Amino acid sequence: MANLWSGRFEKGMESIVEEFNASIFFDKRLYDCDIEGSIAHVTMLSEQGIVTFDEKERIIQELGNIKSQIEKGEIEFDVHDEDIHMAIEGILINRLGDTGKRLHTARSRNDQVAVDTRLYVKKEIIEVLENLKFMESVLLEKADKYFDKIMVGFTHMQHAQPVTIGFHLMAYFQMFKRDIERFMDSYERTDYNPLGSCALAGTTIPINRHRTSELLGFKNVTENAMDSVSDRDYILEFMSAASICIMHISRMAEEFVYWNSQEFSYISIDDSFCTGSSIMPQKKNPDMAELLRGKTGRVYGNLVQLLTVMKGTPLAYNKDFQEDKEGLFDTVDTLKKSLLILAKMIEKTEFNMENIHKHLNKGFLNATDVAEYFVKNNIPFREAHEMVGKMVKYCENYSKDFSDLSDEELKTIDERLNLNLLPDLSMEGCVRGRVSYGGTAPIEVQRQINEGINWLNTLV
Fold first, then answer.
1. Please, what CATH class does the domain formed by 12-105 belong to?
2. Is the per-residue pLDDT at 202 higher than 70?
3. Is 277 a known active-site residue?
């Protein structure tokens, strides 16, 4: 069958041009969205009296047959089909003749592909959100288990202050919570129907775009036909949210990599998320965590690729826009799998408390607590900060800890110092005292967990 747009042309495409131009081998993934859009479109055309009821019924029935055959693998696509939209329409016309030719009334491939990708992105956002909610439930469960178990908190990868493991995990809960909110927000702007915008200027045929929006489950129609066919912001928003989300995944994966090292031994990653070495029999490598870290680059790359495609495209539609799909599909697949793998890895990972406790006596984790106790005893903070800094220096010089210092030694550091001016120096005491809202005190971590559970329940 000749190309559906071949009336204007005397010659066919060069074979290499035809292959270069075709998108059928990747956009065939949109077949269900394309058929869904076509069914809504022809239903509206029938209701408007543009096609007959019988024509509508025949078209819908055959579209259903085509969908079923695609899903069973009974239809093979070819480079001559160019894209999924023309492929399905071509099959329909082959089977229904003139009746099939009526389907494309009052629409263009420009608005057809726009409605297909919007439908696709909407569905994928919902699936991503489900994976994110699973992630959050795993984090809440693990945080609750370790809500009062103490570990080293770092800044600049240096020992900073003692925190609880639950507190640390709840930091990631907040990151993924923002991801959920971003995807929900992007869904709102994706939820507009461009179908009926046609090529760029609308149509003289008396269609009802609000009706197709209703049939397709969109909350409203797009406002301007030219913008409707040339807009890919909704894909960029999805990719942007995905890039931020996978950055969070990568940060946690990075911590798993070094927590799992012999130098830390904070955690033991389950064997099912590790691999061995082809030459070193003792190795147990955290390959899944490393892959999660590495996958971040391709998601970033997909976003930058589409931003670059869009930056130089004049209104309205341009063939450049065909380059939106491969990166989108790859981002969807990568993000969904990454979320599930990380969540399941967290679920099966336990913390080695004995090893973690060995690290707690290094780096003067209680130094800030001492300074704050001085402040409570009417010493200005900057003076308190300097006094504790001198205490640290003295201890380092004599291989001591704060708890080893005598009254006489404290006096040599600062005449105001004495043992009565030192607080509870234990890690438990330090953590227990940080009851400020959002702090690491176990009672406050428990509040954060309960708040997280309540918020997650509102999404179910």
1. mainly alpha
2. yes
3. yes
